Amino acid sequence: MIIEPKVRGFICTTAHPAGCRENVANQIAYTKEQSKLSHSYKSPKKALIIGSSTGYGLASRISLAYTYQTSTLGVMYEKEAAGNRTATAGWYNTAAFESFANDDGLYAQTINGDAFSKEIKEETIAKIKRDLGKVDMVIYSLAAPRRTVADGTTYTSVLKATSDTFESKSIDLRHNTISEASIPTATEEEIASTIKVMGGEDWAEWIEALVAGDALEEGAITVAYSYIGPELTYPIYKEGTIGHAKEHLHQTAALLTENYASHDIHAYVSVNKALVTQSSAAIPVVPLYISLLYKVQKELGTHEGCIEQVCRMFAQKLLIETPEVDGQGLIRLDDYELDSEVQEKIKALWEEVTTENITDIADIDGYWDDFYTMFGFGIAGVDYSDDIDASVAVPSI
Ligand code: NAI
User: Fold this and answer.
1) 51 Cβ below 6 A of ligand 1
2) Residue range 206-222: mean pLDDT, rounded
3) 237 labelled catalytic
4) What is the pLDDT of residues 15-56, one digit of tens each?
């Protein structure tokens, strides 16, 4: 079939297998170039990546495999193609990653299912024991709208403010127009639910299950991803429902390191840069901030995507003799984003931006390029007029 993008609000309901493959190939090529420059103190041998198919998790998988030759087991929640529906981008990315890795003699297998569930944890641990023995690195990169826990209760995460209703400029992504967004205040129950989904509880359950199943090496490292952002977005992010969940994640890192000291396990949170991913596009106000951030950072030459961020994290912040953390124990990959020059410029542009000037003062094209790229569209070297088979197998599934 000929596959075209079908955009509905902040998601694209189609994905292009050849475009996704190219996207993965580009990230591998970048990683290989970088790996010539980096001399790491430690090299993870076997990694479990939870949330491995898109965004930061996929970049982590690629960076580990192609810098350190790490064997990678991924966990994702994606859909294969059916009838005239394409597979999800994460499915195609994973099919491509596994086939490249297999060709390059690297172990790469994937489990598709709900990472929050006991069943998928058990299946994953059984697979680790069968194929790898133990893992020495666990990346936790889930971004999910809901979580069902063992007793069957489903919690839903919401993106709301927590003190006052937050009125802010925002971008209407359907028309690229500036509008006024009013973000309501969450109830206590909504805050608690968001913490259940995006906080650290499930991360801790994974580590507990891996240790209990004797599938985690002594001295293993685990990393989860977080975001803080500038004051401009505090009401919707840092101080919003999601920020409460991230705070819980940060506390979980400290608890995990403490609780598993006898196994010498070290848990870190890496605070990353705001980037266009399927998850961030859903957060009100943030897409406008991202398009201004891209504009300013591209002009200053400090713009990075997921793969650049993650390669830098492993080589320069984490896998060095003493990992580089701030006063709160957090790895800061948002250092360039939060640079005062960058933020001063964004503040000024934020005041100025209107529907009329948005294409001039914000990198709205860069935003949309990244958006389409995520789904495998608009990628150089791909012929989109080709009649292509949407059914692509993930070798290990
Ligand atoms: P993403 O949407 O690109 O990736 C999410 C991953 O989780 C995918 O692999 C998906 O298949 C998997 N997943 C979702 N629900 C699942 C489930 N129930 N079971 C198994 N797998 C599931 O998200 P992104 O943006 O890469 O986010 C990953 C982490 O990075 C999140 O914790 C996010 O808060 C954090 N982060 C994101 C930033 C951004 O600007 N995008 C900035 C800083 C941190």
Assistant:
1) yes
2) 98
3) yes
4) 999 999 999 999 999 999 998 877 777 899 999 999 999 999
Q: How far apart are CA 335 and CA 357, in angstroms?
A: 28
Whose CA is closest to 372, among 1, 23, 138? 23
Q: Is 188 helix (H, G, I), strand (E, B) or coil?
A: helix
Closest atom of ligand 1 relative to the 280 alpha carbon:
41
- The domain covering 7-144+153-374 belongs, at the CATH homologous superfamily level, to NAD(P)-binding Rossmann-like Domain (3.40.50.720)
pLDDT band at 157 (very low <50, low <70, confident <90, very high): very high
Nearest CA to ligand 1 atom 42: 274
List the residue whose alpha carbon is closest to atom 18 of ligand 1: 114
User: Phi/psi of residue 382, each to 5°?
Assistant: -105, 130
The pTM for the full model equals 0.97
110 in contact with ligand 1, CB cutoff 6 A: no
In short, whether 55's Cβ falls inside 6 Å of ligand 1 is: yes
User: For the residues 127-140, what does the mean pLDDT come to?
Assistant: 98
Mean pLDDT of the chain: 96
Closest ligand 1 atom to the C-alpha of 57?
26
> Residue 261: which pLDDT band, with cuts at 50, 70 and 90?
very high
Q: What is the pLDDT, as a whole number, of residue 141?
A: 98
CB-CB contact of 252 with 243 (8 Å): no
Cβ atoms within 10 Å of 336's Cβ, excluding its own: 18
Alpha carbon distances (Å) from 285 to 11, 173, 232: 16, 10, 10
Residue from 56, 66, 92, 237 carrying the catalytic annotation: 237
CA 5, CA 14: separation in Å to the nearest integer?
6
